[in-house]
Amino acid sequence: MMQSSVERVRESQTAARIGRRSRSPVFVLGCPRSGTTVLYHMLLSAGGFANYRSESNVFNILVPRFGGMRLESDRKRLMEVWVRSMLFRVSGLDAADITAKVVADCRNGGDFLRIVMQEVARNQGVERWADCTPHHLLSMKEIKRQIPDALFIHIIRDGRDVALSYLRQGWAHPLPWDRGEELGVAGLYWKWIVSKGRESGTELGSDYREVRFEDLVANPQEVLGRLGEFVNHDLDFRRIQQAGIGSVSEPNSSFDIEPDGDFAPVGRWKTKMSAQELADFEALAGDLLEELSYPLGSLGAARSTFRDARLRATYLSLSEIKQWLKARTPLGRLVRLKRIQVEAQSRRSEVSQERGSGSDNGLRDGSSE
To answer: pTM (2 decimals)?
Structure first.
């Protein structure tokens, strides 16, 4: 039977979409310590992606710090800082060339990331790039507006293991009167950022995909096969193992390798949380654990105490307020640059500004397991 003209047009449009998808940038996102790094390194190990071994920190640090990059003066100041940072040092780019391109052609964070990563890809002889900045999970809708062909993979890990990793890294900082609540504070941050990411993901439709860290560890070939179909890229697990870039061959874990030589990142909470710690944690974040089909280990989620209500109200609100102030007000220009490892500054005022920057309202950013 001959195809109608409508069917041929539809097939042509589908093929065009698939072709475009095979060149789309991929964003690997999630709560820090959820496995973003290992999944990103798996993409790099598969080949065909620009090998950029750093978090770009564009939307969570550079955009607020440099006024959204709208003004030429902000872009010039951005590049003065960026070419002295670790982000530039791992790029392999020429400082003068990339500065000229950004100052002339960049108007927002999406432009900046696209210009930089396309140059990195071109220098490496590949057509595609990916980004692994966990906190870009909070900026997915903005990224999608500025980079329309972007694809998003949200990797989710059991919040109990995430919180333990946060404590191991020293990233959970309760308010002074909540000392001893580090696990709960870390769990509430996990609950907040994962929920925010999932909420945004529903608006991204077929360009958003969730994957569980535990599934990736247990069945990497199957999970990578599904993700390969999503991003239209060959993610052959055997080739990934052979290349073994970064944490694919050297796990980026907060915990030491087990005495028997095994790497066991799943379910650590079962042996490293006391019964009371587990009950307290699940009373705060158990509702999201259940929503994500993680079995509870206690009856804590059914408990309702003044402590639980106060901690939820305090730290969920703090996370929301902090993000709003950084993204929507001039206070974003005070965001710290420590994470991008800028070399010694020449201006005394800049050093003073960095030393005078504030705390993170309970939690510090960090790279992920």
So the answer is: 0.85
